Amino acid sequence: MIQSMTGYGKATATLSDKKINVEIKSLNSKALDLSTRIAPVYREKEMEIRNEIAKLLERGKVDFSLWVEKDNSEGANPINATIVESYYKQIKLLSDNLEIPMPIDWFQVLLRMPDVMNKTETQELTEEEWMEAHKAVEEALQHLVDFRLQEGAALEHKFREKIANIRALLEEVTPFETERVEKVKARITDALEKTVNVDYDKNRLEQELIYYIEKLDINEEKQRLANHLTYFINTLESGKGQGKKLGFISQEMGREINTLGSKSNHAEMQKIVVQMKDELEQIKEQVLNVM
What's the angle, vertex CA 13, arms to CA 12 and CA 14, rounded to 5? Predict the structure, then answer.
């Protein structure tokens, strides 16, 4: 089954004092375009994370985020009493020496001073913590892949519908082919009889008409287009990583449809060709989302 390049996945790992959040989003892109935002303590694992993402996702514009939410329910950061006392003495001394009034609200002043609140955050990543974080990364990636598969199934259904429509339109061309040849022949003969007031060699005219009509023959284009339609479906069924190939096939389909239009020389056939082009454009737009 094909995968879309559009996807989203999120997972969390809850530890005793923190919650690790992993979020990953992807959009369509010609190659893998990966951006990461990783909490400092996990930066040493960035290359490992990147390699896992590249191996699994292959293509797309991917945004990966890993951040930590601290659990402060067990108490706030402690106040460093020694530093508070030192600041108090310095401010009091300056007030006496410079004859500046003392602060009215000491606590408001002192608690804003640098390093008064002790920070107890550890910057070392333990193996146990990384195992939990890594599980969250894998889970988020799997959620994104599941999302891509779901989107891919919708795309596949759309592609099959559009290919079936083009195939049906191709069948509609057949009844007009004989009619077209007769109309071309009648138009040329009528024009010749009206504009040239002389006898002409009808056998030679027949030979020239055959040569002219052969140039308008569309059997090869019809056969090649039918083959491209079948090849598109076969490629669709071959699995993921077929987006570029499907894009190339749709380009070839476009060439054959354009040639049909230039050779048609018939109003009804040209209407059918326009409908084919409309169906193909919708395929081309959606192929850009296929991995």
Answer: 120
Domain ranges of the chain: 81-110, 152-287
Q: pTM here? A: 0.70
**pLDDT tens-digit readout, 261-275:** 888 777 888 999 999
**74-112 tens-digit pLDDT:** 556 677 788 888 888 888 888 888 888 888 887 788 777
pLDDT in tens, 186-233: 776 676 666 655 565 666 666 666 666 667 778 889 999 999 999 999
User: What is each CA distance from 86 to 89, 90, 102, 116, 118, in whole angstroms?
Assistant: 5, 6, 15, 10, 15
Most confident listed range (70-79, 180-189, 271-280): 271-280
Cα–Cα–Cα angle for 235, 241, 246, rounded to 5 degrees? 40
Amino acid present at 14: T
What distance in Å separates the CA atoms of residue 157 and residue 6, rounded to the nearest whole number? Answer: 16
What's the chain look like in SS3? Answer: CCCECCEEEEEEEECCCEEEEEEEEEECCCCEEEEEEECHHHHHHHHHHHHHHHHHHCCEEEEEEEEEEECCCCCCCCECHHHHHHHHHHHHHHHHHHCCCCCCCHHHHHCCCCCCECCCCCCCCCHHHHHHHHHHHHHHHHHHHHHHHHHHHHHHHHHHHHHHHHHHHHHHHHHHHHHHHHHHHHHHHHHHHHHCCCCCCHHHHHHHHHHHHHHCCCHHHHHHHHHHHHHHHHHHCCCCCCHHHHHHHHHHHHHHHHHHHHHHCCHHHHHHHHHHHHHHHHHHHHHCCEC
Residue 290 pairs in a beta bridge with 4
Closest by CA to 247, choosing from 192, 188, 278, 291, is 291
